[in-house]
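Bit of a strange request maybe. I'm writing a small parser for structure token strings and I need a real example to test against, not something I typed by hand. Could someone generate the tokens for this chain?
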Amino acid sequence: MLSMTGFGREEFRNDQLEINAEMKAVNHRYLDITFHMPKFLLPIEDQLKKIIQDKIKRGKISVSIYISGTYTHRKQLQTDWDLVDQYVDHLKQLQTKYQLSGEISMDMISQFPDIFHIEEKEEISNNTETYVKNTLLKAVNSANQMRTIEGKELRKDLLIRTENIQDNIKQLGERRKIVIIEYQERILERINRYLENTSVSDDSKLYQEVALLAEKGDISEELTRINSHIKQFQQIMEETDPVGRKLDFIVQEINRELNTIGSKSNDTWISEQIVYLKSEAEKMKEQIQNVE
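Reply from user aminoacidic:
Good idea to test on real output. This should exercise your parser:
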């Protein structure tokens, strides 16, 4: 079991290059990856996403990559040809207008400094691409170590709560038998008071009606289903695939059964236990929101 919360940072340095990669992960319904990185890394964004997708299946992932150094920059001399054409054209106009002699030479044109300029372009070489991918992978692995540690704590907490629910469900099952008898006795007492002055010809039918009324308050089916859900919950926690959504669904089903028991119950002790169990189930649901 993995938590969806984690953080990883990794650095790479050599004589010409420095790379810093950070990855933050928080809970999210799906896998959502966003990058903050230099524009020249955009051509390999899908490859960087694949590195994360191979390691993480669910969560909101924010990745920041910073690169500095001369290794990522290339200087390139650029000529403003449109400006050169204008210079030459104007020089020819000067010659014609003032009847000047001489040729327009290279030395003359090169005196105009604004026709040349140096551009510094950022680009990614094969080596830089490899360094970036390896650095990101290490950052992801570092975050996964944190997610694994927190996942173990989440599993431990959920396991304790499922065991608490099992213990309480067992007590509810034992109390159920007493409650049914008490409920039947109360029903009979009320009927007898009502029929004190009335003769009933068919006692068996009367007792059958009493049994049916008592069954309406029987919670045995709900207890059985909750036990089944808890066992399934514990089994799913041992799976290696992401289990968060499955666990969330099962807790919803447990809550549904607890609500049914609460509506059926006419026993104070059972009602108090249901309040406690619903509180435990709610805490489980909150914890599961962080499970991948």
